[in-house]
Write a structure and sequence with these properties.
With 381 residues, this protein is an alpha+beta fold. The chain folds into three domains: 149 residues, Aminopeptidase; 42 residues, no CATH class; 182 residues, Gcn5-related N-acetyltransferase (GNAT) (Aminopeptidase, 3-Layer(aba) Sandwich), CATH 3.40.630.30. Strands 1-2-3-4-5-6-8-7 form an eight-stranded mixed β-sheet. Strands 9, 10, 13, 14 and 15 form a five-stranded antiparallel β-sheet that branches. A three-stranded antiparallel β-sheet has the order 16-18-17, with helices on one face. Helix 8 packs across helix 9. The radius of gyration is 22 Å and the shape is elongated. The two termini are 37 Å apart. The N terminus is likely disordered.
Length: 381
Amino acid sequence: MTGAGLYQLAVMIDVVPMERNEESFEFALDVKKEAFGPHIMERWGWDERLQRETHAERWAEKRFFRIVRDHESIGVVSIDEAPDHVTIGEFYIFSSYHRKGIGTEVLTGILREADAKGLPVRLRCLKWNPAVTLYKRHGFVVTSESDTHFLMERRAALQLTIGIGSGDRAARLASEGAVAVQRTAVSEGTAPPVSSPMHLVRPSLDYLPAYVASLKRGWSPDNARGGAATLDELAQIEKDPRAFVAQLTDRDAKGPPVVLPDGTTSRRLPGYRLWLWDGEFCGSIGFRWQPGTSSLPSYVLGHIGYAVVPWKEGLGYAKLALKLMLERVREEGLAYVEITTDPDNVASRRVIEANGGVFVERFRKPPQYGEKDGLRFRITL
């Protein structure tokens, strides 16, 4: 794994090799002390001399990468590749950037690179480090342990397809880091393993041609606006494909107002979209929220919306996509999310209920949505 800008993980996040100089050395140590120091102090206290000596040893023997967001250095990670595995070592992000999905995105990029080479990924983690939960969600399992540390490994996606039988087991192994789930394993019964995983990916220019092809086949990512949204997006992509991809991840709500089904506009909420991918484009799922509260404005019908392309329906992808999205959403600190559907959409209702959705009410949609009836479900996080 070599080269500048090796892991371009999303529009605004990069993981790039660090220069071997004093500034980089001190930056990596500063990030460790600020982000990881509390976990060390909890058990042993912080010995500055010892920590500096330990850091110097690891700096000399490992390859460190700088995590950059909007041209600002916000963390470090060490990544080493052996012939038969990849090792993640130091992995620290400044605490002010925690709970923003950045750690998930960095990890997903590393796993995707390892999957492409068919290599398992290994790491060592303090038992009381909250990141243990993150690693387990991405398919890591504990292979051994000491009094203080877990040794963990996550097999490559193509390796994970071998021997997966039951739907429950496949679902447990699934993660947004490209852990393979056979298409039919998410439904009842068993099926022979296949090599195409269904997972969630960040929109990128690499996936955009397949997205455009789906739009041109008549699919729409917006169940409320339908064909109008399709035409709008095709026009945006033709004008500036890079800008279109960039605006699909808008955690700070910097984008233009949102167009509602009646043509009016409303204030944009923070949010992002992910795409369903199994080797082909399968659909889209989005999440939006109001900072500091689980409630939503009246013109926003739900926190999560999804749409699977017609030629991929019936494979259990909507259910799996919602499951994977909920794992990400839990990092945002909301108490619950709400999802709405139409009364006659039985398939969507089953998807929501399969992921813990509880029926709340039948309601009348606001005028912007034609004042039609809808069903509201709530999923406690």
